[in-house]
């Protein structure tokens, strides 16, 4: 109990962690992804995806309301026994390890292809993992501080992108729904991957200073995510013609090629480097949650050892093998499914089980 | 009395004063550790304690009023001669009417002491001791008068509109200087003594209805844990009690200005005054505290805001500019506009060494010149400017060893670091600059970004006595932004900074309405 009180985070930090985790590489990828499946109507799928995610996140918060003193794992241990907790902890540890690995490899690939072409990937990985380790070893409080700083330090991004709007052609957004609602709905599952990360709330909940605001906070966080995705998607949709979309990879970065500041020639290079801070929120919290889950399984508290093991494994393995672009996409697809099960389905199932068990207990008491 | 006993006491007292091997075990006072009341014996023991101490003055006398034998003992240089001659010796030797020797002495502070250990330390602190034959305790008179300088303008933290009194080397005077600003009975002082040989007085000054008591407990606890022989300077104390001694950043603010100290106290912070040191410590502070200056509050708020922003800009320049130059020249030349690149190339073309070496060479020269400027005596100091300006600046460019642009970068960096108001923070920035340069030389702009992220990761994990060092930026405390990057009008600063967790948050009652003055 004390452990959570000493490390409490503010509502803003809570929002920053969740929004940061979701936005990070989605921001660069989502316009392409949406356009590929739903054309210029992709933004509608995004809004639907947001609605679904909001519902799922509220389920997660509802689940946590039943047990204010601990994380999801503590809750499971209380109602389902220590081993139920351990089983879920193992699943979650795997999930977060893969999640952070995916994020790390994705960002390293972006950096390698745009900035450091010559440097071996394991060195780049090593470098970006130094600050990650420094933040993640220091518990939730520092992750919150780091995330909110990164979020505030990135407020310039919309302004930079608004420079591209002078090339905008708003007619590209029309016609709305040329092929009916079919493609829009079929795209919704693809947006799920970019909303993954709100599940952090089940770990962050006990650290929250004002728990009664958790529901509001998570809605704000998801709305922020939606707004930034909507912003970048629409900017890309009105900038690139529907035919161009197929040929351009990572349109968000491509867009910046048209921006030229008097003191800065190549804005997109600078953008990727400075965006690293947002990228890092994708893996820093999940690295921590990984080590938390592992520690919880073994009843330890110091997050450093599992962190070192995981980070060491990632760096060493990257010396021998790094997934290429297509493998990464396959990994994303797979992670999207895994994430759907963990983040959307699991809380629902647990909530159902929990209310059943509560009802059962009261019945037993009454009888 | 026998010599054996005398030696025994002497050794025991000597042990308590210094012996680290015996860890305070010598403090077991028995009756034999007190003075005997026999003047001859006591004087003999006194002299045995202070062997080879030619400045110890023992003045035997006979008190005229009572006719008893007595002796006044004091250390020559540490006491005020006037006070001893006129206020102690004169009444004792001349007054007839009084029957008691204490009433005739006209010194403000008078204590009675019995234990040798107390007497010994009182003598060493500048008191004079009067042993009276047959009296069971000695009279200790406050006659301190050691050499000290007058109160002067602060040397390091100069200010345009602030007060012209700086702290001096005497603790009581320093506290008096603070009290002049805050004549309030809630201004409390906790005194502690540290240092086995120096026995340094350390006072923590605070407002007890404003400051956070948990922080006070932490400060007192950390000072109390110190077990060291001597504390010479407040900088040493700060290193002994700060949170993260491995960090390049100062976590305790040192100031030599009483007005700064007072304004920090009123914000809910603690000021730690160390005897014999002309600068006091302020804790807990945050990163932003190092960018505030006392002048900010006496200039117009719009000007002050501009200067604040200028300082944060200067901080970025001082840390990142040389690194950015290296990155742009040797790695990411696509980042800067072509025409600028051509201009740089024109001057860089003839330079035979790599940008990194060029930058390191010039930065090291700058650092050496700066250090020389601090250490050199003033008359010789001017030569540094001449050598630096003409020989290094001009000749090195003409010889084609360093490019013009590099000299501009270094000069810009130097000026940027000069406008940061706190010397310790500048020192940290100077050090960080080199790490950023190495990062830039190895990985270009990416290396700088990694350096920046490490810096942020470090700053957010720092704490200063239980309060976050990165506040109000991370954790974000919007309420405190009124006095960090900007300085809003004083009448709008109704609350104290939240980051110090003050017990009383409100500072003033609004006396101006929103539209007034428009």
UniProtKB/TrEMBL annotation, chain A:
<feature type="transmembrane region" description="Helical">
    <location>
        <begin position="334"/>
        <end position="356"/>
    </location>
</feature>
<feature type="transmembrane region" description="Helical">
    <location>
        <begin position="149"/>
        <end position="172"/>
    </location>
</feature>
<feature type="transmembrane region" description="Helical">
    <location>
        <begin position="12"/>
        <end position="30"/>
    </location>
</feature>
<feature type="transmembrane region" description="Helical">
    <location>
        <begin position="305"/>
        <end position="322"/>
    </location>
</feature>
<keyword id="KW-0813">Transport</keyword>
<comment type="similarity">
    <text>Belongs to the amino acid-polyamine-organocation (APC) superfamily. Spore germination protein (SGP) (TC 2.A.3.9) family.</text>
</comment>
<feature type="transmembrane region" description="Helical">
    <location>
        <begin position="270"/>
        <end position="293"/>
    </location>
</feature>
<feature type="transmembrane region" description="Helical">
    <location>
        <begin position="83"/>
        <end position="101"/>
    </location>
</feature>
<feature type="transmembrane region" description="Helical">
    <location>
        <begin position="192"/>
        <end position="208"/>
    </location>
</feature>
<dbReference type="Pfam" id="PF03845">
    <property type="entry name" value="Spore_permease"/>
</dbReference>
<protein>
    <submittedName>
        <fullName>Endospore germination permease</fullName>
    </submittedName>
</protein>
<dbReference type="GO" id="GO:0009847">
    <property type="term" value="P:spore germination"/>
</dbReference>
<feature type="transmembrane region" description="Helical">
    <location>
        <begin position="42"/>
        <end position="63"/>
    </location>
</feature>
<feature type="transmembrane region" description="Helical">
    <location>
        <begin position="215"/>
        <end position="240"/>
    </location>
</feature>
<feature type="transmembrane region" description="Helical">
    <location>
        <begin position="121"/>
        <end position="137"/>
    </location>
</feature>
<dbReference type="GO" id="GO:0016020">
    <property type="term" value="C:membrane"/>
</dbReference>
<keyword id="KW-0472">Membrane</keyword>
<keyword id="KW-1133">Transmembrane helix</keyword>
<dbReference type="InterPro" id="IPR004761">
    <property type="entry name" value="Spore_GerAB"/>
</dbReference>
<keyword id="KW-0309">Germination</keyword>
<keyword id="KW-0812">Transmembrane</keyword>
Automatic annotation (TrEMBL), chain B:
<comment type="similarity">
    <text>Belongs to the GerABKA family.</text>
</comment>
<feature type="transmembrane region" description="Helical">
    <location>
        <begin position="309"/>
        <end position="329"/>
    </location>
</feature>
<feature type="transmembrane region" description="Helical">
    <location>
        <begin position="435"/>
        <end position="460"/>
    </location>
</feature>
<dbReference type="InterPro" id="IPR050768">
    <property type="entry name" value="UPF0353/GerABKA_families"/>
</dbReference>
<feature type="transmembrane region" description="Helical">
    <location>
        <begin position="402"/>
        <end position="423"/>
    </location>
</feature>
<feature type="transmembrane region" description="Helical">
    <location>
        <begin position="378"/>
        <end position="396"/>
    </location>
</feature>
<keyword id="KW-0812">Transmembrane</keyword>
<protein>
    <submittedName>
        <fullName>Spore germination protein</fullName>
    </submittedName>
</protein>
<dbReference type="InterPro" id="IPR004995">
    <property type="entry name" value="Spore_Ger"/>
</dbReference>
<dbReference type="GO" id="GO:0016020">
    <property type="term" value="C:membrane"/>
</dbReference>
<dbReference type="GO" id="GO:0009847">
    <property type="term" value="P:spore germination"/>
</dbReference>
<keyword id="KW-0472">Membrane</keyword>
<dbReference type="Pfam" id="PF03323">
    <property type="entry name" value="GerA"/>
</dbReference>
<keyword id="KW-1133">Transmembrane helix</keyword>
């Amino acid at each position: 109990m004390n452990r959570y009180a000493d490390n409490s985070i503010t509502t803003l930090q809570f929002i920053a962690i969740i929004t940061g985790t979701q936005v990070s590489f989605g921001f660069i990828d989502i316009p392409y992804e949406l356009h590929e499946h739903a054309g210029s109507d992709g933004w509608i799928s995004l809004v639907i995806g947001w609605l679904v995610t909001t519902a799922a996140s509220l389920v997660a918060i509802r689940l946590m309301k039943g047990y204010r003193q601990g994380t999801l794992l503590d809750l499971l241990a209380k109602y389902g026994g220590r081993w139920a907790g351990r089983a879920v902890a193992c699943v979650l540890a795997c999930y977060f390890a893969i999640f952070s690995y995916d994020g790390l490899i994705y960002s390293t690939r972006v950096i390698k292809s745009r900035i450091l072409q010559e440097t071996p990937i394991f060195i780049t990985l090593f470098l970006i993992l130094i600050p990650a380790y420094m933040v993640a070893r220091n518990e939730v409080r520092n992750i919150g501080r780091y995330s909110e700083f990164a979020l505030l330090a990135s407020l310039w991004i919309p302004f930079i992108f608004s420079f591209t709007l002078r090339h905008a052609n708003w007619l590209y957004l029309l016609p709305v729904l040329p092929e009916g609602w079919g493609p829009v709905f079929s795209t919704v599952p693809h947006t799920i991957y970019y909303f993954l990360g709100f599940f952090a709330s089940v770990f962050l909940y006990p650290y929250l200073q004002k728990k009664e605001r958790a529901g509001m906070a998570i809605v704000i966080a998801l709305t922020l995510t939606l707004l930034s995705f909507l912003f970048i998607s629409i900017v890309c949709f009105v900038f690139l013609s529907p035919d161009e979309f197929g040929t351009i990879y990572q349109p968000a970065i491509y867009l910046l090629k048209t921006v030229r500041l008097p003191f800065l020639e190549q804005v997109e290079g600078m953008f990727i480097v400075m965006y690293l801070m947002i990228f890092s929120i994708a893996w820093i919290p999940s690295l921590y949650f990984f080590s938390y889950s592992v520690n919880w399984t073994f009843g330890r508290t110091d997050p450093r050892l599992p962190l070192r093991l995981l980070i060491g494994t990632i760096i060493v393995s990257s010396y021998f093998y790094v997934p290429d672009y297509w493998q990464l996409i396959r990994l994303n697809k797979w992670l999207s499914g895994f994430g759907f099960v963990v983040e959307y389905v699991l809380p629902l199932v647990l909530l159902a089980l929990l209310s059943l068990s509560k009802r059962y207990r009261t019945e037993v008491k009454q009888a | 009395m026998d010599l054996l006993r005398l030696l025994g006491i002497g050794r025991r007292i000597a042990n308590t004063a210094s012996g680290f091997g015996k860890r305070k075990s010598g403090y077991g006072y028995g009756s034999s550790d007190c003075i005997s009341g026999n003047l001859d014996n006591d004087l003999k023991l006194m002299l045995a304690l202070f062997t080879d101490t030619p400045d110890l003055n023992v003045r035997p006398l006979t008190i005229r009023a009572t006719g008893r034998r007595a002796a006044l003992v004091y250390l020559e240089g540490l006491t005020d001669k006037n006070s001893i001659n006129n206020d102690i010796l004169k009444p004792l030797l001349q007054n007839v009417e009084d029957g008691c020797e204490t009433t005739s002495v006209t010194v403000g502070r008078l204590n009675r002491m019995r234990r040798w250990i107390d007497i010994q330390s009182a003598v060493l602190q500048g008191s004079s001791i009067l042993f009276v034959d047959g009296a069971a305790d000695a009279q200790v008179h406050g006659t301190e008068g050691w050499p000290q300088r007058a109160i002067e303008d602060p040397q390091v933290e100069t200010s345009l509109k602030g007060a012209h009194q700086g702290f001096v080397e005497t603790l009581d005077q320093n506290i008096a200087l603070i009290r002049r600003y805050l004549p309030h009975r809630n201004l409390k002082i906790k005194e502690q003594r540290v240092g086995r040989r120096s026995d340094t007085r350390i006072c923590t000054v605070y407002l007890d209805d404003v400051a956070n008591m948990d922080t006070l407990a932490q400060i007192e606890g950390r000072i109390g844990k110190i077990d060291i022989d001597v504390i010479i300077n407040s900088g040493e104390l700060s290193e002994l009690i700060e949170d993260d001694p491995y960090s390049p950043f100062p976590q305790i603010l040192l100031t030599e200005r009483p007005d700064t100290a007072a304004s920090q106290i009123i914000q809910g912070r603690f000021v730690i005054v160390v005897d014999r040191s002309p600068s006091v410590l302020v804790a807990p502070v945050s990163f932003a505290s190092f960018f505030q200056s006392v002048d900010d509050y006496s200039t117009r708020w719009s000007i002050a805001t501009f200067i604040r922003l200028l300082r944060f800009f200067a901080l970025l320049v001082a840390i990142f500019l040389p690194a950015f130059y290296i990155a742009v020249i040797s790695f990411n030349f696509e980042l800067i506009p072509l025409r600028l690149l051509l201009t740089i190339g024109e001057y860089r073309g003839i330079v035979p060494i790599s940008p990194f070496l060029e930058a390191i060479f010039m930065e090291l020269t700058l650092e050496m010149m700066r250090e020389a400027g601090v250490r050199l005596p003033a008359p010789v100091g001017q030569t540094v400017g001449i050598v630096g300006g003409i020989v290094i600046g001009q000749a090195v460019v003409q010889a084609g060893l360093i490019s013009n642009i590099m000299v501009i970068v270094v000069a810009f960096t130097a000026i940027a670091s000069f406008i940061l108001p706190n010397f310790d923070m500048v020192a940290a920035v100077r050090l960080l600059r080199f790490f950023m340069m190495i990062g830039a030389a190895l990985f270009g702009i990416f290396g700088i970004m990694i350096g920046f992220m490490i810096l942020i990761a470090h700053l957010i994990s720092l704490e200063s006595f239980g309060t976050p060092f990165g506040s109000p930026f991370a954790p974000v405390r919007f309420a405190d932004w009124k006095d960090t990057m900007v300085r809003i009008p004083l009448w709008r600063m109704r609350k104290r900074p939240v980051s110090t967790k003050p017990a009383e948050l409100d500072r003033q009652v609004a006396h101006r309405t929103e539209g007034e003055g428009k």
